[in-house]
Amino acid sequence: MPTKAKLPNTQKFDYQEVLRDVARSMVRLKRPDRLLKLITRFIDQQFGLAHASLLVFDPKKGHYVFVHSKGTKRLPMGLVKFDSDHPLVQWFSGSKKKLPFQKDFLFLSDVKKMLSRAEFRMASNSKGDQLAGIQKTMQNLKVELLVPGYFKDALVGLLMLGRRVNGRCFTTQEVTFFQTLAHDCSMAVKTAEYNQNLVEQNQELAKRLEEIERMRNKEQRTYYEIMRSLAEEVHAKEPYIFSHVSEVERLGMMTAREMGMDLSGKTKDLLSAALILHDVGKIGIPDNILCKPGQLTQEEWRVMKTHVEKGARILEPLTDFKKVREIIMSHHERFDGSGYPRGLKGDEISIEARIISVVDSFHAIVSSRCYREGRSIDSAIHEVRNCAGTQFDPVVVDAFLRALRTELQKKGEIPSALAEHAAD
Description:
By secondary structure, this protein is of the alpha+beta class. It folds into two domains: 188 residues, Beta-Lactamase, CATH 3.30.450; 182 residues, Hypothetical protein af1432 (Orthogonal Bundle). Helices cover 54% and strands 8% of the residues. The chain is built from 16 helices and six strands. Strand 5 and strand 6 form a beta hairpin. Helix 2 packs antiparallel against helix 7, helix 3 packs across helix 6 and helix 12 runs antiparallel to helix 13. The protein is rod-shaped, with a radius of gyration of 42 Å.
């Protein structure tokens, strides 16, 4: 803010340049209180007043409060507040019609002139009482000139100016200057207020979205646990393979690590969920087919294969598990394209589904079913290896066998079929 004249009224200054500085400050300063302080300080320095004060509406408190005052007789901040029914506020907020003086500013001398007229003194319930209240306030606060600041016809605040120390009167040019300053201040205050409201609304929205997300995650976790229970229920129908779900998950994660997959965060969660829930659709398969001790008929096999689509439909409420549904839909596809339900092949099948295909088949071979005894690990290894390139992805098979060898080696058990798969 320019300070060309250190002594009041000894030099002239460029009003337009000052106003341009105010406009630049409005853009530069994020906090309007700093701009208001600059303006009151500038008025005090340039005009030599008893005080220059700013009264601004506080929307949170619902009344007008002094935000800054400068001068030898500056007003105490925070000790004075005006409600919306205060005479000063009413005068500048009400209609301009039928008033003897325009309302863009108000001198104490004009108030006294108006009160001296019989029409104000004699009229009951009129502007007389209002003017009397205004005169009392201006005299108590030692205010010579009031300049309102508006934003879209709403009174934002009042610039209150005390008498000049040298006793000179305000010129028309100076009053116009104060009016522009008051207008610019109002713009700055309302813009900051709107921006702050927007920030607060965004913060509140963010909190609400976080709460919704927490509730959604809680619901999804609950539904996921239900799905896990359903998956275990499917296998609990056959007591010998009750632990199949957990074992398939363990073998699958072991294979993925061996392949160097990134198992941090959501990737791990999705793979784990797919391994656990891959056969959840079997809950919709009749027991007489699911637990049949003999070979399935062509029609029964057609029904059995529908567990893939059933599982995907069951998982539809889990919006975060879209990838899991896709994995479940693909875990019975074959590497050579002869699988179901879509006949995908090679890289068309997700890597997670290719992993599940290997570990699920391996564990199914070594597990006892109601219609057969489980086979040896050596036998299962030979079958998995023989199906590499047709039913299974050879890369996944190789990684699985390496991981299995490492796992069994820890237990001191190394099947002969794994002899050639030395740990890296």
